[in-house]
Amino acid sequence: MAAPLYSIEKTIVYRKLDNGLQLRLLPIPFSTSVSVATQFRVGSRDEITGQTGYAHLFEHMLFKGSQHAPGDSYAQTMSALSGQFNASTFFDFTNYYLTLPSEALELALWLEADRFIRPVLSQQTVENQQATVLEEMATTIDNQPYVRDAMEFLLSQADGTPYGHSVIGSKEDVSSATVEQLNQFHQRHYRPDATQLSIVGTYSDNTHAWVDAEFGQWQNPQPALKVPSLATATPLAPKNKQVHGEIIDARGPWPAVLLAWHTVGQQHQDAAAIALLEAYLFQNRASLMKQSGLTDPEQLLTYSIPLSMDLMGVSNLVMVPRAKTSLNQLVTNVQKMIIDIADNGIDDESLHQLKANWLNQALQRLDRPSQLARLLSATQQRDTLTPLTGPWERINTVTTAQIQQVARLYFADNLVRLDLLPSWYIRWTKSLLEVLPEGVSDTLEESVL
């Protein structure tokens, strides 16, 4: 099943420019479009005190004018070409990606280089994008029940690490950012030796010359970039302790519980086993959480998006209970599942299926050039020449003993629990429904829903 990963990987053309920029080209015959992805090794973890949110804010700025494409020229040009473009910022990286007709690739590379190397920030554009980010913050965080307090609670668990503040930053820091500070942020962090550029689709024989012409003269600032290798990286040790907190939000429609476990960064030797265990417990349709709720479920909803950063990881699970089920019962159910795996492991058939599911997801990305370009630009240092097969080979070597070991090390004894509680009258009603006969609570729940 993994053969396509190996065969496609052999067609990747890899180059490293003299300035350190890493280039990967993957031809897709008979395609009429090309996808370009550029990832920079800069994210919120690189921000200093008083400048939280700068990586995300600067991402916005790069769509608002450069030396040769002022104002909204970039967006207008892409729209005229029927191009699709976007960007995202995370703790460890910022990426930019676009898809457009193949014949426009030379123009696209010129535009990308111009905005990455020569952005033009004015007071007006900074103020406009500050307002945009603050509106995004209000819409996605502050105006949603539970989200702000839950986010700050989880971030407090990483206090003292580079991951102790949110990617979007604080209102105060975003509002006070200046043109000069943002220009300094760009000069420090947007550099060729922190850049991976990937081109996937149909491209011209002149593409190498275009890349050299647009990116080859880009100079690195001082000091030299420090990229920790697997041998020298210092992972953040997981906190092996129980934490239990609660927040009350009058806007909350119903109680819920958020569970989290500190794990390890994506370069750690246990990362592959943890990824499979997360899928087994929480994520796919065959997960233990889904299977436990197929008949007479105790939860209305489960939701999990594990976070895997360079130096640490966080597994998480949000559960919304049925009227008849308490938050304590939901937590007990999850802990029983984890303890069972820590004590007894999983069988070979289950592990085989987990690997097959992981591989199927990897194969699906091969049919999506935009996702494939982003994947290539997110290549870890150890997978420089094996961006597709390196991660798979780590997954494929995971054993049932390793699954049992990571369950014991990272999940059995370090649960972070946060109860998300609505107003007192909803909590009181919920408590009453928990002690009523099951048929009665089910009927009332159905009426409310």
UniProtKB/TrEMBL annotation:
> Which BP terms in the Gene Ontology apply to this protein?
proteolysis
Which UniProt keywords are present, listed alphabetically? Hydrolase, Metalloprotease, Protease, Zinc
Pfam families hit by this protein:
Peptidase_M16 (PF00675), Peptidase_M16_C (PF05193)
Q: Which InterPro entries match?
A: Metalloenz_LuxS/M16, Pept_M16_N, Peptidase_M16, Peptidase_M16_C
Residue intervals of the Peptidase M16 N-terminal domain: 31-157
> Domain named Peptidase M16 C-terminal: which ranges?
177-356
Q: Which GO terms describe its molecular function?
A: metal ion binding; metallopeptidase activity
Q: Which family does it belong to?
A: Belongs to the peptidase M16 family.
Protein name, entry field: Insulinase family protein
